[in-house]
Amino acid sequence: MMRGLKYILLAALGAVALNGTAARAQQQQTTDPQQGQQQGQQPTAPIPAIRSPLAGATGDLDVDDSQQLTPDTRSLTGAEDLSLGTMALSHSYWQPHLSVAATVDSNPLYSTGSSDWTTWSSLLGGVDIHHISGTSDMLVSYTGGGMFSNSGDAENGIIQQLGFQDKFSFRRSTFSVFEQLGYLPESSFGFAGAAGAGLPGGGSSGLGTGFTPGQSILTPRGQNLTSSTAIEYDNKLTPRASLTFVGGYSLLHYFENDLANYGGVNFQAGYNYQLTRKDTIAVSYLFNGIRYNNLNQSINANTIQGSYGRRVTGRLAFQIAAGPQFVSSTSPITSTTSTSGSGTSSVSALYWSLNSSVHYQLRRASLSASYNHGVTGGSGLLAGAETDIVSGSVSEQVTRTFNLAWNAGYSRNKGFGLGTTGTSQTYGYWYTGVNVAHPIGRSLDVFANYQLQYQNINDNTCVGTGCATSVIRNQIAFGVNLHKQPIPF
């Protein structure tokens, strides 16, 4: 397993040097307007608060941004969620960025009733690249740095985030490659440690539900690696109908905690039909195979969904998919089990799945929300779980030099019992945050963030160092962002 992780890390570092996707594009709107706001299971970059996602480079509130966008052409059954549209850019550019922040943390070790306040200093730097060449449209974003504790109670943390996307467009087909990698000191869902004029805890995963490892529980502090790779092929059968095929692999690994590490193989096939210029329907089949490297547990999930999507360029992007989910496991997840000759228990059960998201753009405000339900890997604390995730955000450009944003998220993970001694734990996790940002010129802004995290477990079982049955955490951050204007090449 460690040999495989070594190869993944080496491949990720190589991708940084060559090419990649702009997962951080919305944080500076002049960086990459092509990336629509994505609300997935594993947000890895802050939600932008500098300006509306559709605002022009000058920040002019009177600009009709919908006239600058081209319609979204993403497949309804593809790896990415739908977007509000994309900017038609014809040149390549790169843009460096630097962020510095100071954070006050009320509970860095996630202890029950803790009042041991700790301060952090964060320094992050990176680069965003957009390269257009022939049939290729490539996006890359890298952010690296760390969180440095000013007390001996909490360890320092390393932050490494990489996004890669390359799309090859032909007359009747499109071939796309996606890669997302995060090396963080704590759980990515609700992570507020990354400096930047963004809303803490929220963000853009780039890939939709089913193609990421899932990390929706607040785990003990410690470095962890998440990686998601997907390859997508879209083929137009007629002007209205198309086929989509997606295959990939996702990984969740903890380096400093004895938690459940796992990898997942996924494959999806979908048929899409465009009813009108704005409305699309689809049907899809998704297979997820989850394997744990330190537990005698494996999960196979087969999901069939019917989907509906509506797109109004520059205004609305809505999608919903629902259907049955047939799950089989080598360990019992219900009371009805069977035992093979080797003594391994197996079970099958029927669940339901639902994935939905909406993005709505007003004149000065942007709203987004998502809800997902289905079987996941358990985020490292559970060997499989039935999971609900809800998240939403509202951002508004109050004036030309004052921006306000708020978001919130909730996850509920009901674990599968293992064998005859297994207990079914349930984790309920909430977070909410607010951001205030003030741009100074075209390359500098100052910001202030506040975030509240709360997690509760339904029994007294504690997994991992520093965990607790009930955790409350407050974080306050102040800092500055420096982002160079895009440099053509």
At a glance:
With 489 residues, the chain is mainly beta. It is 3% helix and 54% strand. The two termini are 40 Å apart.
State the main characteristics.
single chain; 489 residues; Porin; 18-stranded antiparallel beta barrel; two-stranded antiparallel sheet; globular; disordered N terminus
Class by helix and strand content?
A: mainly beta
Poorly predicted tracts of residues: 1-67, 201-205, 332-343, 418-422, 463-467
- Helix coverage percent of residues? under 10%
Please tally the β strands and state the result. Answer: 24
- Whole-number mean pLDDT: 80
H/I helix tally: 1
Output the helix-strand order: HEEEEEEEEEEEEEEEEEEEEEEEE
Overall 3D geometry? Answer: globular
Give the domain tally.
1
End-to-end span in angstroms? Answer: 40 Å
CATH domain class name:
Mainly Beta
Major beta-sheet overview: 18 strands, antiparallel, barrel
Question: Any idea of the CATH topology?
Answer: Porin
Q: Could you tell me the radius of gyration in angstroms?
A: 22 Å
Would you mind describing this structure in some detail?
The protein is mostly beta strands. The chain has a single domain, classed as Porin, CATH 2.40.160. The protein has one helix and 24 strands. The chain has one helix spanning 2-18; strands spanning 47-48, 69-70, 86-87, 93-105, 118-133, 136-149, 157-169, 173-184, 198-199, 224-236, 241-254, 262-274, 279-292, 298-312, 316-329, 338-339, 345-361, 365-376, 385-399, 402-415, 426-440, 444-457, 470-483, 487-488. It has an 18-stranded antiparallel beta barrel. A two-stranded antiparallel ribbon has the order 1-9. Strand 14 and strand 15 (316-329) form a beta hairpin. The longest helix is centred in the N-terminal third of the chain and has 17 residues, at 2-18. It is globular and about 60 Å long. The chain starts with a helix and ends with a strand.
